[in-house]
Design goal:
- The chain is about 35% helix and about 25% strand.
- The protein has about 130 residues and is an alpha+beta fold.
- The chain has a four-stranded mixed beta sheet, with helices on both faces.
């Protein structure tokens, strides 16, 4: 979650403090603030886990989207990052440090790609005695 709700205001400008908003409410304004980046906290908590981020990029082009995925990997010490969105183009990419991006045309292919990638990664760790 990139943002969290700090206030909900109804059509009259009154702050809504109920746990549920009525579907009869004509409109509401949500006040948002940036949420803490959970991904930044994962590697220290789980040093040997396989961590995969996700970058959904609308703006820019394919090369800038791929650069942002690589930056996410570097900044948060991830094993990989999945990239998609208008900037990347159709389908999904699986980015890894120092490796070419592997592509999947749809969600099913992405799931299969990730499952195979994870199996291979865990097998390499087991063979190296790192499990």
């Amino acid at each position: 979650c990139d943002f969290r709700v700090t206030r909900v205001v109804d059509a009259r400008g009154q702050e809504c403090r109920t746990a549920k908003l009525s579907s009869q409410t004509p409109f509401v304004n949500l006040h948002l603030e940036p949420a803490p980046k959970v991904i930044a906290e994962l590697r220290p908590l789980f040093p040997s886990a396989v961590l995969v981020g996700w970058k959904y990029q609308l703006h820019g082009d394919r090369s800038s989207a791929l650069a942002l995925a690589q930056l996410q990997i570097q900044q948060h010490r991830l094993d990989a990052s999945v990239i998609n969105g208008r900037a990347f183009g159709p389908g999904f990419g699986l980015c890894q440090p120092g490796e070419p991006t592997r592509e999947a045309p749809d969600k099913q292919a992405l799931a299969e790609l990730l499952a195979g990638w994870l199996r291979a990664k865990l097998n390499r760790r087991a063979e190296a005695g790192l499990t």
